[in-house]
Amino acid sequence: MTSPQPGASGAPGRTAVRGGLLVTASDELHADLLIEDGRIAAVAARHSDVADGWQADRTLDATGKYVLPGGVDAHTHMEMPFGGTFASDDFETGTRAAAWGGTTTIVDFALQTKGRALREGLDQWHAKADGRCAVDYGFHMVLSDVTPESLHETDLLVEEGVTSFKLFMAYPGVFYSDDGQILRAMQRAADNGGLPMVHAENGIAIDVLVEQALAEGRTDPRVHGEVRRELLEAEATHRAIQLARVAGAPLYVVHVSAEKALAELASARDENLPVFGETCPQYLFLDVENLAEPDFGGAKYVCSTPLRPKEHQEALFRGLRTDDLQVVSTDHCPFCFSGQKELGRGDFSKIPNGMPGVESRMDLLHQAVVEGKLTRRRWIDLACASPARMFGLYPKKGTLAPGADADIVVYDPHAEQVLSAETHHMNVDYSPYEGKRITGRVETVLSRGTTVLDRGEYTGRAGHGQYVPRGTCQLLG
Ligand code: URP
Ligand code: ZN
Ligand code: ZN
């Protein structure tokens, strides 16, 4: 790489990325790319007169590598309060880890506290993130208290770029909304253009099973997976779809883990309903065997929806191929084993729910490409383009095209790596994928033209990342 010369945006004036295979959701091109003032200025065929004529201040040599749009992780929980503790990554450590893993935009969930205004929760999340992020970020809003006031506030939030609202059918007494509240929130979204997102598990029924399991002395982490029955995810998914249908609203179901829940989404989509779904790497690569790891080790894998028996993985991959699932996000919500997951020793219901993942998503999905489960373009669709479209960020984010932000990953598809807590950059003391060998690695990452990872050396800084107000869902007909 030649030495960079800062331009107006703080990024080098003109950068050419040459020699790589550009992969987007729609194309694979042997092409070069020119960056100016933090944006992609041009894409031109390799060795064409146009590309050869570019005068650049520096050149990134991507020979033998893929050139990808930066990843868009539409489901993270930095510093989220849960079960008396907080997710161990804050916006600084979490977005730095995202950059290491080739993710250049996150959409995090701001939380409404019960009895308080959405505005207050959103302001708190802005304060946590402002000046701390290594990559760009936006927010969804969690509606924990559906009232006439909070519904009115959703109109204002949509206008200012917080265009999606999560409702929980799980966690009674904490984030839970009942069907009437969910219906009202969906009706409001149908009017104001917001996208309702649901955590689809029947939390009321699950709490009965939790109580019964604990009374029988079944306290291990694996029981977390047993009581959060697949049927109760499928039932809630079905109910959410019907409520959205009655409201005339679109619907996005987060962290789909199970074949029967996926079948509900597929049949709704077969009826041309605007229903979308996301799954996460943990459901594609881990299973209930992990929850049964000895010495309370299963606690590392406690998240909701829970890990399922291995057979579900094939169904989820099929759903990703057939577009019954559109997005792979991480639901990054890490808690250290020591001192945090351990809160649930002797009572699985006290284990904070959530797993780390923001750094490994692009790599794990590439591994699925290596194993023939996804095509390269579908990888980029699921990890970049489709989340950008779903959450009103496209084409600024999620693609490589003139005018787009120069969020670019140079990816070495042949590098071998072993995932480990020893080498990852997330602020958590274990890796759910400890020892897993994968092929492919993020080499260099640009965020709006600024190099944040340079051939495996971190060059980013807290505060480079900017808040990105979002438009409404771009996948509605
Ligand atoms: O276990 C999880 N998923 N924790 C984060 C909160 C949520 O439900 O997404
Ligand atoms: Zn959830
Ligand atoms: Zn989540």
Query: What CATH architecture label of the largest domain applies?
Result: Alpha-Beta Barrel
DSSP helix count? 14
Q: In CATH's first tier, which class of the largest domain applies?
A: Alpha Beta
- Shape, principal axes of CA atoms: globular
The CATH H-level superfamily of the largest domain is Metal-dependent hydrolases
Bound molecules: N-(aminocarbonyl)-beta-alanine, zinc ion
Structural class: alpha/beta
CATH topology of the largest domain, anyone?
TIM Barrel
C-alpha Rg (nearest Å): 22 Å
Per DSSP E runs of 2 or more residues, the count of β-strands stands at 20
How many domains, in number, for the residues?
2
Low-confidence stretches: 1-9
Q: Can you offer a commentary on this structure?
A:
This protein is of the alpha/beta class and 477 residues long. The chain folds into 2 domains: 14-68 and 396-414 and 433-458, Urease, subunit C, domain 1 (Roll); 70-390, Metal-dependent hydrolases (TIM Barrel, Alpha-Beta Barrel), CATH 3.20.20.140. Helices cover 31% and strands 22% of the residues. The strands form 3 sheets. Strands 1, 2, 3, 4, 5, 6, 17, 18, 19 and 20 form a 10-stranded mixed sheet that branches. Strands 7-10-11-12-13-14-15-16 form an 8-stranded parallel sheet. A two-stranded antiparallel ribbon has the order 8-9. The radius of gyration is 22 Å and the shape is globular. The model is unreliable at 1-9 (pLDDT under 50). The protein binds N-(aminocarbonyl)-beta-alanine and zinc ion (2 copies). One zinc ion (ZN) is lined by residues 199, 254-255.
